[in-house]
C-alpha cells in the first residue's frame, strides 16, 4: 500500500513547483517581518477529520514558509464560539432565533471546551514543528478595540457592500444578543434589526428579543454590546482589521469550500475601499468529500440526512475516537500533510473520505530512525 495518491495535473499545479509558491507573490511584493497563518473553526462539538486536516496544514505550511523565506511564522486559531447552540422559531411572528455557544455556555465553559478538544492537538503539532500558536475566541475578537473600530469605520460604507455580504436579501446579518441576564437570544436573520451610526465612536442597534420584546444596545470601541456578525460580514471585518498591521502578513487558511464564498468577501472588501493589491492572502486546503462529491458533513450524517460514506471510520467524524494515542494521531496527520504538500497536484484538489482514511491509516514515517 502506498501513501501517495494519484493526482492529475491542473492549471494551477502546472504553474507551481511547490504548494507554498502560491503565496510567493504576496511575500515578495511587500516583504513582511513575520507571517501569521489564521485558521478558524466553529467550536460546536468534537472536531472531525476535515477540521484536523486544515489545522495541521496551517502548522505544516507555517514551517515550510519559515524554512523557505527565513521569516518567523506562527498560527492563530480563531475559535468561533458564536456558532448556534440553540435554534427556535417565534410561534407568533415566524422569525428565526438563535442563541450562540458564547451566550449559552459562558466564558469558562468555552475555555474548557477549547482546552479539551483542540489545544492538545495544537500542542502536539507545535512541539513537532517548532511553530508557536495562540488561540483567540470570537468573543475576545469582537470585544477588541481594533475590531470594533474597524466595524464602526465600515458602517458609513456598508451600503456599497451589502449585496456582496447578503446577495439574496441585501441585509447583512448583525446579531446583538438580548442583554438581559440569562437570555442571550438574537434574531438569526436580522429582519427587524436596525443599526444607526451616532458618530465615529458610537452606534446603536435596535432589535426584538424572542422573550423580552424590543431592546436597544450601544456599540463603542471599548464598551458596549456583544457584536455577532454572520459569516461573510464577520470575515469582511476580520480581514480588514488584519490588513492594517505593518510588517505582518496574515494568511487566511480555509477549507476548499470557502473558494466560492471568498469571491463575495473580496468584492465586499473592494466595495468598502480596498484595492486588489490589498486583498488578504488566502490558502485553500484540500476538501474532503463524500461518494457523491459533496462536502463531508458530520451534522448531516448524524441527522440522518446523508449516508455515512464508504470507507469512513467513526474516528473521522469524531477524532477523539482515533484508535491510538494523541501523539500518534499528530504523527499520522503530519505524515498526511507532508504527502499533500509534496506536490501541488496533491494539494490543490479534493479527496474522498475513503482516500483520506486510507492515507491516514497507512504506516506513518517514524520521527526517529530505528537503530
Protein model, in words:
The chain is α/β, with parallel strands linked by helices. Helix content is 40%, strand content 21%. It is built from 16 helices and 15 strands. Strands 5-2-1-12-13 form a five-stranded parallel beta sheet, sandwiched between helices. Strand 8 and strand 9 form a beta hairpin. Helix 3 crosses helix 14 and helix 8 packs across helix 10.
> What is the radius of gyration computed over CA atoms, rounded to a whole number of angstroms?
21 Å
| Total tally of structural domains | 2
Shape: globular
Considering DSSP H and I runs of 4 or more, what fraction of the residues is helical? 25-40%
Q: What is the average of the pLDDT values?
A: 93
Kindly report the CATH topology of the largest domain.
Rossmann fold
CATH superfamily membership of the largest domain = HUPs
**Number of helical segments with 4 or more residues:** 16
**Tally of extended strands?**
15
Specify the biggest β-sheet. Answer: 5 strands, parallel
| DSSP strand content | 15-25%
| CATH architectural type of the largest domain | 3-Layer(aba) Sandwich
